[in-house]
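Researcher: Let's walk through a ligand-bound prediction step by step. First, I give you the protein sequence. Second, the SMILES string for pyridoxal-5'-phosphate. Third, you return the three-dimensional complex as structure tokens. Ready?
Model: Ready.
Researcher: Here are steps one and two:
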Amino acid sequence: MSSTFKATLDFAKSLDQKDTLKHLRNQFHIPKDNNGKDWIYMCGNSLGLQPKTTKQYINQELNDWANLGVEGHFEAQNPWMPYHEFLTDAMAKIVGAKPIEVVVMNTLTTNLHLLMVSFYQPTKKKYKIVIESDAFPSDRYAVESQLNFHGFNSKDGVIEWKPREGEELLRMEDLETILDEQGDEIALLLIGGVNYYTGQYLDIKKIATLGHAKNCMVGIDLAHGVGNIKPDLHDSGVDFAAWCTYKYLNSGPGSLGGLFIHEKHAHNKDLKKFSGWWSHNKATRFNMRQELDIIPGAEGYQLSNPPILSMAAIKASLDMFNDVGMDALREKSEQLTGYFEFLINQIDTDRIKVITPTNPQERGCQLSVQVKNADKSLHKALTDNHIITDWREPDVIRCAPVPMYNTFQDVFNMVEKLKTLL
Ligand SMILES: *Cc1c(COP(=O)(O)O)cnc(C)c1O
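Model: Step three, the predicted complex:
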């Protein structure tokens, strides 16, 4: 593909012209500078932009609440009682799951804990947890606190899957070695499906196979995967997964997360779990005096009646994803990120290195660009020019051209500016 790319503005414009998804950008609010010029927003991996329909979806619920009060639970246009069900099919499609395997609830780190209640059942001998050495801090803290909670020492209980000396990316052989050597002591693998720092998309199915061969549970954090890559969760065989919806799923700051529990666990009554009234059989929930009758599958993990205003924002986004489909998004994404990579490689300097894998099958849209001898002032200079990226110490700029709203001209103009700043 890259052999046909050209590093000119005209060429970038021609790619935009040919883009069959170009109409989507206009369905988002794009932040603008004082002169009304669009920012170059490459931070959809941190907070996705707002769809123009979001307001409408939230207003619908505000109006129904104003007009109906408590009756809205059943009488609202989208009744609040089953509201989460309106999200399930679209969400299941995005992650490649069956509806019984998926629910939208709580936030990501909370869900990781609730899932570990079920899937981290340590014994004296088999209690360790494998994470990536550069796992997202919240995941690390969650895992360490689970070890402490169960009476283990988190220093000794966390095993890091690390890149080799002088490398940035993880190798599957090294996970295999960890499992060969320490598998008998390992209870759980909790791995980021797409690493937040390097953008590396790991082979989830392979991780599940390796972990299960040593009787370990396998969980995947899909915060940087959902809406970005197509993880085929059901087929991968992983036991559980969790993600947030405010990154690539554009549902707004702090919005609810989603989780996946593989169908093979859906009816397992022996699985330990925490419960609340929303875990209970919907038909008898309001009898209020019943013994707990847990809903099978992911829905049974709900505790509370959920925040409808957040769910409305998620519905606005999922309806868009459902219309477009991940196949089309992924196709554009590979081309857009491929063009971005091509342009970066044209920069005539040895200060720059893309640490994200070059193989499109091993990455989503994000490229992590390492800049030798750079400090945060480079990121600030980009930001001052309304080019919104994400800085990670010591020297990496993470840039996520998102297929729903970024353009080929965005990546072209971004790289031009980067060139002059260097
Ligand atoms: C964004 C992100 C989080 C954030 O967790 P919240 O509970 O939503 O605040 C956690 N883990 C990973 C891997 C992330 O990318």
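Researcher: And what stands out?
Model: The mean pLDDT is 96. Residues 107-109, 136, 138-139, 192, 196, 221, 223-224, 244 surround pyridoxal-5'-phosphate (CB under 6 Å).
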